[in-house]
Amino acid sequence: MPNSVNKEKASALLPDPPSVHTSRRMRLQTLVRLRWLAVAGQTATVLAVAFVLGFPLPIMEAAILIAALAVANLTLSAWFTPTHRLGPGSATALLGFDLLQLASLLFITGGLANPFAPLICVPVIISFASQPLRHSILLIIFALISTTALAFSPYDIPWYPGEMLQVPPVMQMGVWCAIASMMMFAAFYAYRVSHEASQLADALAATELVLEREKHLSQLDGLAAAAAHELGTPLATISVVAKEMERDLQPDDRFREDVMLLRSQSERCRDILRRLTSLSADGEEHMRRLPLSSLIEEVIAPYRQFGIGIEIVENSNRATEPVGNRNAGILYGLGNLIENAVDYAAKGVTVTTSHNADHVSIKIEDDGPGYAPDILTRIGEPYMTTRSRESESAGGLGLGLFIAKTLLERSGATLKFGNRDDGKPGARINIEWPRPIMDRPKID
Prior knowledge:
By secondary structure, the protein is α+β, with helices and mostly antiparallel strands. The protein has three domains: 19-201, no CATH class; 221-288; 304-438, 2-Layer Sandwich (Heat Shock Protein 90). Helix content is 59%, strand content 10%. It has 14 helices and nine strands. The chain has helices spanning 5-13, 28-52, 59-79, 88-107, 121-130, 133-150, 169-218, 220-248, 256-288, 292-300, 328-344, 373-376, 399-410, 435-438, and strands spanning 26-27, 85-86, 289-291, 309-314, 323-325, 348-355, 359-366, 414-419, 427-434. The relative contact order is 0.09. Residues 1-23, 280-286 and 388-397 have low confidence and may be disordered. It catalyses: ATP + protein L-histidine = ADP + protein N-phospho-L-histidine. Residues 1-21 are annotated as: Disordered. It is a multi-pass membrane protein. Keywords: ATP-binding, Cell membrane, Kinase, Membrane, Nucleotide-binding, Phosphoprotein, Transferase, Transmembrane, Transmembrane helix. GO terms for molecular function: ATP binding; phosphorelay sensor kinase activity.
């Protein structure tokens, strides 16, 4: 199997999945603002229940619990800057404090009979949306323990004076089950959405870096010409001064050999820069524009030496093939797909090209194990195994395939992944562009 050149580039740009959590650091100011919202909401609710509805309420105890949250907020704001980011342990500890404060407030106001009891899910959801899984699991266990404790609250729910609202144990058990199921479902949903969004953002960032790298490589010829132009004048000056010094020195002067060496080396530098300039000028058109056949050959060339036969089948006449500007995204994307096919092929890979007045298509087929049926619907997601050989390192993350798919789709291509339908094993990828995208007119 070949060394995965393109995938090594991509994997160098992103950490392994377990270390992705290092980017999930909550900003302290965000948590502080959420806590002030909780302080305001709890205060308004207690005042409304005690003074508007006139229900008996342990207002002093409630005020102490709300004040504790406010004091903790003021302390955090005083000790840390607004831009401070919390580590997973610190964030989990603060969310645990919030959960304990809310559970205590619910405990003295009726426990599970309190209609605000489902709010105990909020810190858990925040944790699963922003913190690593192992820290969030600890918090949800603590939340379930706190919810269970609410079922044994000896305090009655605030109600009309002289009346007592009794909640049957069966109803309390139902409320506990509802809160627990909502907590686990919402936590799982928040974690999956946040985790996938984080992976997608990191993979797209890697895509941009790969594309920029390819563009920089394709622009090296222009940089060489610019360097030759900028360095030409000072080297010419050095050469002229060296000649004047050599003319003034006597043949037996001890500095004459050094001056001659200086002049010869400056002339050598000018010759090198002259070759760089001519190389850039001679190859500029070839570098900027590629016929479809040349594009395919350039993409395939690095993978012909790995013992897997690569066959090119052209179903259309070369005389009418599209000729377009060099596109680093297309070159990298096709190269990654070819590499993936070579990685998994048993003996050979077939690349079929065709074009007409409306479309340009490329089909890549290999004789490997093909795609597993449950994988086909998820093709192109980062951090997933894309073939049935799960033990193979190539494709184990799926990041290279994601980058290739993204770059090709940005170029205007439509990709279809599947397995061969001609009775032979192997995978098949169809890539198709509208003809105008791949056929750019020559700019004089």
